[in-house]
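Schema walk-through. Below, the input block comes first and the output block second. Nothing else is stored per chain. Lengths vary across the set, and this one has 220 residues.
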Amino acid sequence: MGIKLGVKKMRKFNKKGFTLVELIVVITVLAVLAAILVPMMVGYILHSRIAAANSGAGRIRDSITYFLTQADCKGYGMGLSKSVSCELEIVIDDTGEWQITVSDPTVFSETEEIKWESTGRATASIDLGGSANATERLAYHLASTFPGEHFGYVKTRFIGGVCDALYYTKDQNTAVDNFPDFGEYNGWEVPDFEWLNAEQGLYNLGIVVGTSPVLPLTDV
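--- output ---
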């Protein structure tokens, strides 16, 4: 019996772990893999965010254009005249409220019941689709169309009853400083833009901005 116990103890103590050299090799391999995979994952996440922002910008633009088309049919739209234009700023707060500021409400028609105002706000939870304030109606239309939006900023321009160009970000709910103005080239003032690190959709300070139509990279 004593001999058997002695053999078991010897076997127990003869078990070997990793040597220092083996640990160094394993750590080195892991470090190399991390150096390769982490930048790839970061790049994949960034490209996904940019694609989502561009998709969001396009969907919001289409939704505003749809609302304007309906407004034209009901007598309180802009009409088809390209001699008039107007800009909108939209702030989406963390409660899901859409707050709209209209640069020039006078470019829109009005009816006895409905008139555009300089501001309007709404959430998806309170139906303002029948409001006398057309700006408020638009805010409700957007809030109810995009109920999952709970933070962000949108700026857009209308020309002739069409949402001509739009930019959108979820990284802040204030204006993006020094972003290109709306202009004659495909809705933008410049034909291309020097995005941060030549990464289309990545703006200064790492803010991701979606555009519709997409604002391309600069050739510089």
